[in-house]
């Protein structure tokens, strides 16, 4: 994703810290934080700047993640757009509609910035995806007999447990034959990817 920038408003520091720590642990290359009035400091080992423009000029950041509370989130998005950050991800929910109308109006008048969000849980790079391990019950269920919620979903003769397992495997999911095997299967898959 290039060189991301962590964007934090002064009231968003706690939430920004929480999510930034998780991102760093995951391996995301954060290059800076932004918090008006706190420029010149460091936080989580990263330099903090007063504005997104200063941060971009000093770090070459290519992405910004907005952790600002709803009343100030639109302003933070617009600031990132003014700094021509190519990718802006806003996790904030509950931003006033009139604020987002203003943001959208600015977005459609430019071509340098893409916005993901608001109310976005974040983004993840597919090559770094964590494995999925599954168990599907019902292999021994008699044909045509409903057994729990899974049976309700596949009712009508359009597939059963075997077809679900095949579909999951085709999507790259590891499917175990017993729920007791799920933990060991997850550990094995994480070890294959160097995650454990």
Automatic annotation (TrEMBL):
Q: Name one GO molecular function term.
A: succinate-CoA ligase (GDP-forming) activity
Q: Which GO terms describe its cellular component?
A: mitochondrion; succinate-CoA ligase complex (ADP-forming)
Alphabetized UniProt keyword annotations: Ligase, Nucleotide-binding, Tricarboxylic acid cycle
Q: Which residues form the CoA-binding domain?
A: 5-95
Q: What is this protein called?
A: CoA-binding domain-containing protein
List this protein's GO terms for biological process.
tricarboxylic acid cycle
The upper taxonomy is: Eukaryota, Metazoa, Ecdysozoa, Arthropoda, Chelicerata
Q: Where are the transmembrane segments?
A: none
Task: Indicate yes or no for the key word Nucleotide-binding.
Answer: yes
Cite the annotated pathway.
Answer: Carbohydrate metabolism; tricarboxylic acid cycle; succinate from succinyl-CoA (ligase route): step 1/1
Give the source's domain of life in one word.
Eukaryota
Question: What Pfam families does this protein map onto?
Answer: CoA_binding
**UniProt organism field:** Rhipicephalus sanguineus (Brown dog tick)
Q: Which PROSITE patterns match?
A: SUCCINYL_COA_LIG_2
Entry's SMART domains?
Answer: CoA_binding (SM00881)
